[in-house]
Amino acid sequence: MDLKLGFLLPTRERIMVGTHETTEILELADYAESIGLDSVWIGDSLLAKPRHEPLSLIAAIAGRTKKIELGTGVLLPMLRNPVVLAHQVATIDQISEGRIILGIGTARDVPTIRNEFEAAGIPFEKRIGTMLEQVKLCRALWSGEKVNWNGRWNVKDAELVPKPFSKGGPRIWGGGGVPAALKRSARYFDGWFPSGPGNGENWHKSWQQLNDYAKEAGRQKSDIIGAAYVTVAINNNVPDAEKELDEYLANYYLRPAELVRNEQYSFAGDKAMVTAWLNEFIEAGASHLCIRFTGDNNKSLMDELAGMREQF
Known about the structure:
Number of domains: 1
Distance between the termini: 13 Å
CATH superfamily: Luciferase-like domain
Number of strands: 11
């Protein structure tokens, strides 16, 4: 399978510097498509990491682009009613003509995210079971058939329209690297989209384990896309790159950079070093990379990423 390269759009970064307007984000998505990148991604948070709402922006991007794939990196479905979510996503899938990838996650256990769940009225401790039921209910609604559902939500003899453009609904990718998360992606999802910790070697070990779980579940390796969400800082001066990465992560997460770097795929170095580090994931089997850059000259960074393709 050909390698696909994606760029994380700086929705949180714009909010952090007081820029609430969306014009730049939309233009960056246009530019990504124009230079041949394969996907753009938008993160999700209500209050813990304030940013633009991802599905709204993806709908806007879908209406002005033609080819580029549009992903959530990652959406927290638990913060949303699944019937409303299924309706939104089916509509966006029609607007984009099947280009949406629904990356979903379970959220890290940190105080700000617990507060976010409490503000949304969602029990944090029950988030995984909630998410799995949401996925099943969304897929039932996306089937185009009448749905009766008795669980956390009650749906009676209902048919959701419009149907998604993609038969059965858009692709769903799950994150996480612990055994339980690997089993979820192996059994229920169309792709695996982790954000760390470690490097390409660590990713490869988890990927092998995931494929063992998939085989046990009666699925083939080809049924599941192997992806990765990574953060990189590129600077010809390596100490400056290290400093830039640390400052970025500390400001973004409001936590010590050392802790974040131990939780997420992240690397700092010159272009050759970063290319070699990313190649570890590709050689390990990753076929789709979502890159988050620490710099703020986004078009130049997109050009950098597009230019790396020949070196992968």
